[in-house]
Write a structure and sequence with these properties.
- There is one protein chain.
- The protein folds into 4 domains: about 5-70, MutS, DNA mismatch repair protein, domain I; about 85-155, MutS, DNA mismatch repair protein, domain I (3-Layer(aba) Sandwich); about 165-255, DNA polymerase, domain 1 (Orthogonal Bundle), CATH 1.10.150; about 280-450, hpI Integrase, Chain A (Orthogonal Bundle).
- The chain is built from 16 helices and 13 strands.
- The chain has helices at about 25-30, 50-60, 105-110, 135-145, 180-185, 190-205, 220-230, 235-255, 280-285, 290-305, 305-310, 340-355, 375-390, 400-410, 415-425, 430; strands at about 5-10, 15-20, 35-40, 45, 65-70, 85-90, 95-100, 120, 125-130, 150-155, 320, 325-330, 335-340.
- A 5-stranded mixed sheet has the order 3-4-2-1-5, covered by helices on one side. A 5-stranded mixed sheet has the order 8-9-7-6-10, covered by helices on one side. Strands 11-12-13 form a 3-stranded antiparallel sheet.
Length: about 450
């Protein structure tokens, strides 16, 4: 009698299948959508979609040795610590959240529910809130009021994932097709998008070194996406951008139909952007002595610009008559107007007399009238980093933090959220709503927050 060697184990959304090598069986497994061979685990992984388990049991029948069911979804979280009734353990996570672990306390829970984006993890039995110094102090003060012992811990550093392979490390490295690059140019995708998409697509096609480009399909996309999550351990945004780069090839270059790829991964939790206070912005800008450097950071903050919008700003975009700045072809290929601060106009005029730029408002080394060179984004971050060191500000501040601070300070000054959405160039109002509640005030009453500073 033939021994029963086939084992099936159901874990959450996956069916793990161990079986001897058999071409007929392998062909059957490959026929199930999104099934894949795991080289590291030496078994087959089949999605636990409705009907898949029944299909496997019916196919293998008497050859099955084991069928185990574990419907729980595995979690990467460490074992939940034991907490006493009068204790609260706060764990600051790597993804800018705070886990709150404590025994049931109605008043404490009531306060947590008032915090934006607070969520209850029913599996792990803890609350989590976005990290911010304000929220942390509020929770700590509320715990003290309720006579609960509060402890704050930091989550251990994340274990590094597999390193992205470089072209020199791969034999017969496949480069991005010319048709892909030409289509990016034809559809007027920004240089930054092209710079991101091309290496991401090359990583995809080189993950399957023995496969021709024409043979790659949805199954390969899903396998590569799982590799990014499980082995590369990339962020959600990196994974999404990789999928978009691949979709561009199938949909835009080949002209295929639009598709959605459903990939298993934990739901991304909401986080709040880092924001500087008015006093911190004052400290940063007042430390800068170089007029060009000061004008760059002041303009980003005063108008809520993205760093890419700043470097691509031509001189004629400054409209001093209407006190507006015309932003062309920004993110999402959108044009918009934003406000021009009175103080920034004075600063720009002084800078313009001294530096005499040719075409771009801010130009890099070697720029000439015949060949104007844009200022480097890396140099702008260096300017900010140098100023931060002089101020002693320890929070993680980037150039984009100035844009977040612009929006927040406008709201604190009573500006209507709808106008801020327009100034920032957000398509969806929900993107802007992260800053605060809706207020009412006219566009003509908006004053740049820079005008309230003594710089």
């Amino acid at each position: 009698m033939e021994p029963k060697l086939i084992q099936i184990r159901v874990i959450g959304r996956k069916i793990l299948l161990k079986m001897p090598k058999n071409e007929a069986d392998i062909s059957f497994i490959k026929g199930i959508t999104y099934s894949r061979w795991s080289q590291s685990k030496y078994l087959w992984e089949v999605p636990h979609y409705p009907g898949n388990l029944e299909k496997l049991i019916a196919y293998f029948g008497d050859r099955l040795a084991v069928v185990e069911r574990d419907e729980s979804i595995p979690t990467s979280s460490a074992q939940k610590p034991v907490i006493k009734k009068n204790e609260v353990l706060a764990i600051q996570t790597r993804n800018k959240r705070i886990k709150l672990i404590f025994g049931y306390h109605a008043d404490f829970i009531k306060h947590i529910k008032t915090i934006p984006y607070a969520s209850w993890d029913s599996k792990n039995k803890w609350w989590s809130i976005p990290y911010s110094e304000q929220f942390l102090e509020e929770v700590k003060a509320n715990a003290a009021r309720l006579e609960l012992n509060f402890t704050l811990e930091m989550e251990p550093p994340k274990k590094p994932g597999a390193v992205r392979l470089k072209p020199k490390q791969v034999s017969f490295y496949k480069t991005c097709p010319t048709a892909y690059k030409e289509k990016l140019t034809a559809l007027r995708y920004s240089p930054n998008t092209a710079k991101s998409y091309i290496p991401l697509f090359e990583e995809f096609i080189n993950y399957f070194p023995k496969e021709d480009l024409d043979s790659l399909d949805d199954r390969h996309v899903m396998e590569f996406s799982r590799y990014l999550v499980t082995e590369r351990k990339v962020s959600s945004s990196y994974q999404n951008q990789a999928i978009n780069a691949i979709k561009f090839y199938f949909e835009k270059v080949l002209g295929g139909k639009r598709k959605l790829y459903f990939v298993e991964r934990p739901r991304k939790e909401q986080t709040l952007p880092t924001v500087c206070s008015v006093e911190e912005i004052q400290q940063i800008l007042s430390r800068i002595r170089n007029i060009k450097h000061k004008a760059i950071l002041s303009l980003i903050y005063s108008a809520g610009l993205r760093i890419s919008e700043l470097v691509e700003l031509p001189i004629h975009a400054i409209d001093s008559d209407r006190m507006q700045i015309h932003i062309k072809n920004a993110k999402g290929k959108k044009d918009r107007y934003t406000i021009l601060s009175k103080k920034i106009l004075e600063l720009l005029r002084a800078y313009f007399i001294k530096e005499k730029p040719h075409y771009w408002l801010f130009e890099g080394i070697g720029s000439t009238k015949e060949n104007p060179v844009q200022y480097s984004t890396r140099s702008i971050q260096s300017i900010l980093d140098k100023a931060l060191k002089q101020t002693g500000i320890t929070k993680h501040v980037t150039v984009h933090t100035l844009r977040h601070s612009f929006a927040t300070h406008l709201l604190e000054n009573g500006t209507d959220l709808r106008y801020i959405q327009s100034l920032l160039g957000h398509s969806n109002s929900k993107t802007t709503e992260v800053y605060t509640h809706i207020t009412t005030k006219g566009f003509n009453q908006i004053i740049s927050p820079l005008d309230k500073l003594d710089i």
